[in-house]
Amino acid sequence: MKSILNLIFKEPLFLLAILLFLTAKGHLEIIDTEYSVRTAIVIIEDGSMLIDVVDPTVLEIAPKIHGTDKIYSQYGLGLVVIFLPIVMIGMLISLVFSVDQRIIIDFLLSFYNVPFAIFCLYFFRSILVRLGTSKSKANFCMLLLFCCTGFWKYSVTDFSEITQVAFLLGAINSSLLEKRSKWKHVSFWCALLVMMKLVYVILLPAFFLYAIWSETKKRNLQNFKNRCFDFCFFLLPIGLFLGYMNYIRFGSVFETGYGSQAASFSIDFFRRDWLDYLFSMQRGIFPFNPILLLSWVGWFYLPKENRKFVLLIAVIAMLWFVLMCFWKSFQGGYCWGNRLLVPIIPFCFIPFAFLPFDKRFVRVSVSMVILLSLVIQVSAVFTKIHETSVLRSKIYEDTGLHTPPQLISTFHVFTNKLTNASTQIPASALGADTDSIIDLSNFESFYGFNLWPIHALKFLGLQSLCYPLSLILLGTVISLVVLLFYSNFKHYRNQQL
Question: Are 351 and 298 within 8 A, CB to CB?
Fold first, then answer.
């Protein structure tokens, strides 16, 4: 038993997996996911990929399919491939227990990001170790990435960004391997990434140029041919497959399902969004992930012998940021902060591992930012995205008063739930100067904290237990976080002595 506990404390991924399991949602929250779920279901049931429209407004931009009012999903085929086995398992369970298959399927799919989050953390730690950090320091930074950034929030929702990050970090980690075939590994992960979201092709030139540039001692024609062959090993077949699928669905290899929206890029959107994407309390990457502000200092301490790699991750982060600013995305839609920038959070956080922690000022600054970040991320994980947006909208409709931006409003919703077990929410709880009460009783998922055990109680008709269990789960999660920090910081400190 003692050896098992030692293993758990030495390998934080075990406790992080428990945190992921406890804070998953148990139901699907995002309308975008519904497209991929329906596609997976009709593939199994009908052998087709045509689905009923989820949002009627999509018909205005989606390619018209002759002879039917159905559409093809505009989202990547990679998510459908991931969903297929989960949907089949859900169908089997629902058949055995005579339960509505969508209840089971949605419950299982709400956990689908968990294994990909574990992959992300493993790759992130591996990258830091390959860059020269100690295993204990890499573990500690991996823990901070999970607990102190929006990574945690997105790992327990059905947005696909964490899955994208897993494939992107897999490619980055593979580029640091010592193997001769490493660029085939990079090609594999990049191919999966493009399957998830075609727009990632914009990053492929950065990987390819790094593949050529990094081979400084073998700059000859044969080596160039080998790198080209290895890099295209998986990417070319996947590219041909995606082109073929586009052709048989839409009649064009260049049509992906986004229709007119595919070209929604403009300098006007860049002017509108670039500053908000950095600093706004509604969507800014730094307010929602304040620990990244300290991470930027670490860029000055990165190992000089890894300059080429540092340039690679800097180019990838900058390319992605600029592209997202140019896109008419409404800043990521209904999401926590800005989901479009989630893929570059680990890249922005890598320099954190190289901060001079031997300086007292750095240690004090890091400790303060960690505490602030934990408050932000815990409140986000326990609160439903939709609940905050609905509450803010209703307060404005009923009173005409504006509420604080999303970051502050979410924290107010979280703190209100600590003392208020009802869905009768005083508008003043969000800072509105009024005595109005907002009734959210029609939203069943707004009772208690947004965790699957709470939703399970409501499903079983035990709503009176939601509030006490919410507090118990909050205490449990905070205790696990404290245990993780204590054990890993203690191990890291012992390694430094």
Answer: yes
Domain count for the chain, please give it. Answer: 2
Whether residues 239 and 307 share a domain: the answer is yes
Q: Do 122 and 95 share a structural domain?
A: no
Could you write out the DSSP letters of every residue in 74-96?
-S-HHHHHHHHHHHHHHHHHHHH
Strands 71-72 and 50-51: antiparallel
Looking at the fold, whether 165 and 286 belong to one and the same domain comes out as yes
Residue 160 and residue 234 share a domain: yes
Look at residue 487 and tell me if it is in a domain: no
Question: Of residues 457 and 215, which shows the higher confidence score?
Answer: 457
Residue 241 sits in the same domain as residue 314? yes
Residue identified by tokens 């604080």 is: 404
Pick the last residue of a domain from 350, 379, 408: 379
| Residue 317 resides in a domain | yes
> What whole-number distance in Å separates Cα of residue 303 and Cα of residue 284?
29
pLDDT in tens, 187-233: 999 999 999 999 999 999 999 999 888 765 666 677 888 889 999 99
User: 192, exposed or middle or buried, with CB in 10 Å at 0-12, 13-18, 19+?
Assistant: buried
Residue 199 contacts residue 265 (beta carbons within 8 Å): no
Instruction: Return d(Cα 210, Cα 223) in angstroms, integer.
Output: 14
Average pLDDT over the chain, rounded to an integer: 91
Task: Collect all residues with Cβ–Cβ distance below 8 Å to 52 and sequence separation of at least 6.
Answer: 38, 70
Please report how the helices 31-46 and 77-97 are oriented relative to each other, as an axis angle in degrees rounded to 10.
70
pLDDT band at 3 (very low <50, low <70, confident <90, very high): low
SS3 (DSSP) at 329: coil
Structure tokens at 148: 């102190």
145 and 39 both lie in a single domain: no
Residue 468 located in a structural domain: no
- Do 101 and 120 lie in one domain? The reply is no
Of 233, 234, 213, the closest CA to residue 224 belongs to: 213
Q: Which domain holds residue 72?
A: 30-109
Classify 111 as helix, strand or coil.
coil
Domain-embedded: residue 322? yes
Q: Which of 340, 361, 379 is the last residue of a domain?
A: 379
Six-digit token string for 40: 């997976």
Counted residue by residue, the chain has a size of 497
* CA neighbor of 165 nearest in space, from 208, 135, 127, 211: 127
Supply the pTM of this predicted model.
Answer: 0.94
Contact criterion met (CB below 8 Å) for 158 and 33:
yes
